[in-house]
Amino acid sequence: MSRDERDTNDEVHEVIHIPPAIQTVLDTPPVQRLVNLKQLGCAYNAYPSCTHSRKEHSLGVMELAGKLATSIKHAQPQLGISDLDVLCVRIAGLCHDLGHGPFSHAFEAFLKAVYRSERDHPELYRERNELFRKEYGMDIPELPEEYEHEQTSLMMVDDLLAAIGLEIDWTDLDGPLKQIGDGIDANFFGFISNSNKLTAFTSRDWVFIKECIYGYPLEQPDAPVAQTDFVGRSQAKDFLYDIVNNRHNGLDVDKIDYFSRDSLGALGVPRKFNILIRNARVSWGICPNPQKCFRCNHQTNPEYHMMIVYPKKMITKASEFYQTRIRNHVEIYTHKKTKSAELHTVDLLKRQISCFPCYCRRSMMIQMHFLFILVLKVSTILVYQSAERGCIHDCFCELTMESLVPLKTGPWETRIQTCNLSKSY
User: Fold this and answer.
1) What distance in Å separates the CA atoms of residue 105 and residue 29, rounded to the nearest whole number?
2) Residue 257 near residue 64, CB atoms below 8 Å
3) Kind and range of the H or E element at 380?
4) Of 197, 342, 359, 383, whose CB is crowded by the most CB atoms within 10 A?
C-alpha cells in the first residue's frame, strides 16, 4: 500500500481526503454504482436541483466520520483510538448506503407493496414462482415483512471484498482477510503509519466495519451464527459504533451530512453542524433509548454505556439538528410532489412485475424484483406512454445496470449469483 493520499472537492465539505486503502474500496463496482443513484430519489420533481448522488453523500459521511473520530482521539488520547480505528470508521461511512436500490426510498416502498400483494394474492406468487422454477430450477424465497437497506449494505460489503479477491475469515478473525481470488494481496491491504510500518486489515476489522453500518451485532447470514454482542471492537470502544449509526440518540455523521447536503440542494442553504463534531466527547452515560438498545432491551433499568456526549453549551445546536430533521421531512422528503412521484413509480413497477420473471433474492432476508430485464423491458415500454411519462422518464434514465443491486441467495458463504441475460423476454 502506498502512502500517497489524494483529495477531491465537495460542495458541502470543500475537500475530502482519500487514502489509498479507501481508494481501493472506492473503485469497486458496489461503491461505484452509487453514482447512478439519486440521494433523494424522486424529490427532484419538487426541487430540480436535488440531483446529488448517493456517492456524494457517502463520501461526505466518510469525511465526517474521520473528522469525528480524529477529534475525539486528540481530545481524549486515554481512549486508545488508533489510526486503524479511524480508517475503519471512515470505510463504514463510505459503505453505509451500499444497499439502497434505484429510486432511493421509493424502492423500499415498492418491495413492501409487493409483499402485501403476495400476501393478499398468493396465486400471483405461485404463477411467478412456476416461471422462476422453470427458468432457474429453484423456488423464490418469500419476502420478509420488513425491508432494511442496512441488511443489503452488509451483503454488498462482502461483494466489494470479493471484487478485490478477499473475504472475511470467521475462523481466524485476528488474521488477515481470506484470499479467495486475484486482486489485492490480503497481507498488503491496509495502511502505512508515520513510522513506515504496514498494518494490514484483519477479518475483525471488517466485521467492525459491518457492525458500524448495521448498528447492532451481526446476525445470520452475515455471520455463521447470530452474535449477541459486538465482535469487531471491545466494549471499551463502544462509542465508535455511534459515529456512523447512533443507536442511542440518532445524532450521527450520516444525518449531519444528508441534512446539510439535502438542505443545500433543495433550499440553497446548507445546515452546518461541524461545531458538534469539534465538541464531541466520550463519557459513561445512561442509555437514552433502551427499547432499541440490544444491551438494555428487556431490562427494567437502562445500563451505562460508553457513548458520544456533548457539553451543555451545545444544547442549542443539538436542538437545531433535530429541528432541521423535522423541517427537511416536511419540506423535502414528504413534499406532495415527491410523494406523488414515488407512488406513481411504485404503481408502474407493480404493474410490470409479471413481465419479468427473473428475480434475485437473499434467502429469507430480502427479495429484489429489480433485474436487468426491468431496464430492457419497462424502460422501453412505459417511458413512452404519454399519459404516464411526466415524472417517470428521468427515473428510468437513472436506472442503469450499474445501479442495480447484485444480490446473492443461499447460505452466507455463497458468492454472487448472476442472471442469464442471453434470452429474449
Assistant:
1) 21
2) yes
3) helix 379-381
4) 342
**From CA 360, how far away is CA 141, in angstroms rounded?**
10
CA distance 149 to 109: 12
Separation CA 219–CA 150 (nearest Å)? 12
Q: Which residue type is seen at 325?
A: R
Euclidean distance between the first and the last CA atom of the chain, given in angstroms as a whole number: 46
Q: How far apart are the C-alpha atoms of 247 and 59, rounded to whole Å? A: 22
* DSSP structure class, residue 374: I
Among the options 149, 335, 344, 369, which is catalytic? 149
Query: Rg of the Cα trace of the chain?
Result: 22
Distance CA 211, CA 233 (A): 9
| Position 255, amino acid | K
Sequence-separated (6 or more) residues with CB below 8 Å from residue 39: 50, 52, 53, 54, 56, 57, 104, 258, 261, 262, 265
- CA 139, CA 137: separation in Å to the nearest integer? 7
d(CA 326, CA 361): 34
| SS3 of residue 282 by DSSP | strand
Tens of pLDDT, residue by residue over 149-207, are 788 889 889 989 999 999 999 999 999 999 998 889 999 999 887 777 888 999 999 99
Give me the torsion for CA of 103, 264, 340, 122, rounded to 10°.
30
Angle between helices 253-267 and 315-328 (to 10 degrees): 60
Specify the pLDDT at position 424. 30
| Rounded Cα gap, residues 365 and 221, in angstroms | 9
Number of helices (H) and strands (E), helices first, in the chain?
15, 10
Query: Which residues touch 319 (CB under 8 Å, ≥6 apart)?
Result: none
Backbone angles phi, psi at 282, to 5 degrees: -115, 135
Cα separations (Å) of 395 from 98, 104, 265? Answer: 19, 10, 18
209 has a pLDDT exceeding 50? yes
Name the pLDDT band for 340 (thresholds 50, 70, 90): confident
Distance CA 242, CA 385 (A): 47
What secondary structure letter does DSSP report for 309? E
Looking only at the bridges linking them, the beta strands covering 304-309 and 14-18 are: unpaired
Is residue 324 within 8 Å of residue 271, measured between CB atoms?
A: yes
The answer to whether 13 is a known catalytic residue is no
Cβ atoms within 10 Å, residue 411: 10
- Cα–Cα distance between 177 and 206 in angstroms, integer? 9
Out of 29-38, 317-326, 337-346, 354-363, least confident range: 354-363
